[in-house]
Design brief:
The protein is α/β, with parallel strands linked by helices and about 475 residues long. Helices cover about 40% and strands about 15% of the residues. It has 3 domains: about 180 residues, Rossmann fold, CATH 3.40.50; about 55 residues, no CATH class; about 200 residues, Rossmann fold, CATH 3.40.50.
Length: about 475
């Protein structure tokens, strides 16, 4: 029996793989599907309701890395960030070297990683230290556990749903040493410059030709033929007409007025946008006299609303709709319910525009040819965080030579830009479809989930022929 195992180290892979058509397509091609994970059992039940079957499920044991392994890994990341800054001449990449409020022991580890990373003065030296890291991982309990588990499952392919998770590295190495084909997906459009490719696999799935060029640019040692343009399943849902509700039905569900123009304010996490609540206040103040406009607020799913509560109380005309997510204590414990997929689709379909700070939601709205408005101003003089850094991030280089979004450069521009997005949407971010094509590269009639499942099917057949 042909087998594939999905290694799902955190909640990031749920929407794209457990809720998409990938698993059903593989089952229809007589491939036995296994998932190796540390997810809540409720997630598996939700997936079964969507796909109509329950894959074989294996619990993923998580190991704590020893200090030497962590120093090797972090030093490589630090060295790659410095190397990528030289490649791109973009100093904002170093903002990714951030650890919140670390303990004394963690601070010591960071300093040692910086010292070792600084000593890697050439790309060959970075590759050499990575080689030491892979060798070190092969001596860990995580590697030995992975060998045993993979022998038990016996897959033809091991696919990791997220390229950033260090805990998955040993499993991918164990699979390669057992002769199992390995692959991973680059999760987001901003991931590659951040020097967090935690594993090496036989194949890499990327969203577009643009991202394929990026992967080759930052990791020239990866053969070009091993990088596959598959799109990403998270955008397949926008092509499913069964998810779209009527305007009246959507309005009735959330207490909206179907006759008004709906404006979506999409919140960011506190690290990306620490003054996000001030932006929401500005939007509410600027639009409160527009009787034909209703603001819908959706916060980032992994955070609550405490910093917005005062604004929501002051401006009851803001309709707050919570994301349909299960909250957890740790990032790995957060996950979306299937209902959230349809909710996002309907927001993009029915709202006239989305306002936020550099969010991917601009791409979601572009699927329905709706303009996005990016906030582009600071609130206070000499504030530590500045919006100027945000739009210098490397992934926004994808906008070059395009007019993909509208820009709100001050509070005073909010009303004017919103009214323009409603009345003349074709004039706001007129190249949004071109930007979407550049980053996501959707293929009409050939959704991402099918491109991915077809690759797996063909790869497994080749493996079995060789065997």
């Amino acid at each position: 029996m042909k087998k594939i195992c999905f290694l799902i180290p955190d909640g990031v892979g749920i929407r794209n793989y457990l809720y998409s058509g990938v698993l059903s397509e593989l089952r229809d091609q007589n491939i036995e599907v296994h998932i190796w994970h540390s997810l809540d059992e409720e997630v598996i039940a939700q997936s079964e309701r969507i796909t109509g079957f329950r894959p074989y499920s294996h619990q993923l044991k998580v190991f704590t890395e020893d200090a030497v392994t962590q120093i090797l890994r972090e030093s490589v990341s630090y060295a790659r960030l410095k190397y990528n800054i030289q490649l791109t001449e973009n100093s904002t990449l170093m903002l990714n070297w951030s650890f919140g409020n670390p303990s004394f022991q963690k601070r010591l580890l960071i300093k040692m990683s910086e010292f070792l990373g600084t000593s890697m003065r050439s790309y060959d030296s970075i590759l050499s230290v990575e080689g030491i890291l892979w060798k070190k991982l092969r001596g860990t309990a995580s590697y030995k556990y992975s060998l045993q588990k993979l022998k038990e499952i016996g897959p033809d392919i091991l696919f990791c749903t997220h390229q950033r998770m260090p805990g998955a590295s040993a499993a991918m190495l164990a699979a390669q040493d057992l002769g199992i084909l390995t692959s991973t997906a680059i999760f987001s459009w901003d991931n590659l410059p951040k020097a967090r490719l935690a594993m090496r696999t036989d194949y890499y799935f990327v969203w577009s030709d643009y991202m394929k060029e990026e992967l080759s640019f930052y990791y020239p040692e990866i053969p070009n033929e091993r990088i596959l343009v598959t799109g990403t399943p998270q955008f397949d849902f926008y092509s499913d007409p069964n998810l779209i509700q009527s305007r009246e039905e959507f309005a009735a569900q959330f207490g909206l007025d179907p006759k008004k123009n709906w404006i979506c304010f999409s919140g960011d996490d506190v690290k990306t946008s620490p003054f996000d609540h001030d932006y929401l206040r500005n939007v509410a103040e600027s639009l409160q006299k527009l009787e034909n406009v209703q603001i819908i607020f959706r916060q980032v799913p992994v955070e609550g609303t405490s910093r917005y509560d005062e604004i929501l109380k002051t401006y009851p005309q803001i309709i707050h709709i919570n994301p349909f997510w299960k909250k957890g204590q740790y990032w790995q414990q957060f996950f979306p319910y299937p209902q959230d997929l349809g909710h996002l689709v309907n927001l993009a379909y029915h709202c006239d525009t989305v306002i936020n700070l550099g969010s991917t939601m601009a791409l979601d709205f572009a699927f329905f040819d709706k303009p996005a408005l990016y906030l582009n101003y600071d609130h206070y003089p000499d504030q530590d965080w500045t919006v100027k850094d945000i739009y210098r991030f490397q992934h926004f280089k994808s906008m070059e030579n395009l007019d993909p979004v509208g820009w709100i450069n001050s509070k005073e521009e909010i009303r004017e830009k919103v009214e323009a997005a409603i009345s003349t949407p074709s004039k706001i971010g007129k190249d949004r479809k071109l930007w979407l094509e550049r980053i996501v590269q959707p293929a009409e009639g050939n959704p991402s989930y099918r491109r991915i499942s077809d690759f797996f099917s063909h790869a497994i057949s080749k493996q079995n022929v060789k065997a």
